[in-house]
């Protein structure tokens, strides 16, 4: 059974996005527990590397287990597609997700033109 490149890329992108969400949740919990609101560059680098690792591992595993590397242009091409090609996608996706996520979890909204901040209303989910 041969999978097309599109299916393999879709599965790899899904794995990278799931890992990004999980690591962002982990970062938010760590910041909440330590009361440290400043974003650390180290944690962002780790998150980007984890995304690349999940993407590359899933892509190499799918190419290797479902079909042969020679069906997709050889091992060097598959390795290039798994490690180098996703870097622009991961960088753009992570920057957009980190900014959006930061604005979502921030407990206040700044008022433009003044030094006022307005606290967000917290939604509490009751079970």
UniProtKB/TrEMBL annotation:
<keyword id="KW-0812">Transmembrane</keyword>
<feature type="transmembrane region" description="Helical">
    <location>
        <begin position="6"/>
        <end position="27"/>
    </location>
</feature>
<keyword id="KW-0472">Membrane</keyword>
<feature type="transmembrane region" description="Helical">
    <location>
        <begin position="78"/>
        <end position="101"/>
    </location>
</feature>
<feature type="transmembrane region" description="Helical">
    <location>
        <begin position="39"/>
        <end position="58"/>
    </location>
</feature>
<keyword id="KW-1133">Transmembrane helix</keyword>
<protein>
    <submittedName>
        <fullName>Uncharacterized protein</fullName>
    </submittedName>
</protein>
């Amino acid at each position: 059974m041969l999978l097309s490149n599109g299916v393999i890329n879709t599965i790899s992108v899904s794995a990278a996005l799931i890992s990004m969400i999980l690591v962002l949740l982990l970062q938010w919990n760590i910041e909440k527990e330590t009361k440290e609101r400043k974003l650390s560059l180290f944690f962002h680098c780790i998150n980007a590397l984890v995304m690349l690792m999940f993407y590359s591992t899933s892509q190499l595993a799918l190419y290797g287990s479902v079909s042969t590397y020679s069906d997709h242009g050889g091992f060097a091409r598959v390795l290039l597609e798994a490690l180098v090609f996703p870097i622009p996608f991961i960088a753009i996706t992570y920057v957009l997700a980190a900014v959006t996520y930061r604005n979502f979890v921030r407990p206040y909204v700044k008022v433009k033109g003044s030094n006022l901040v307005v606290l967000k209303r917290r939604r509490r989910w009751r079970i």
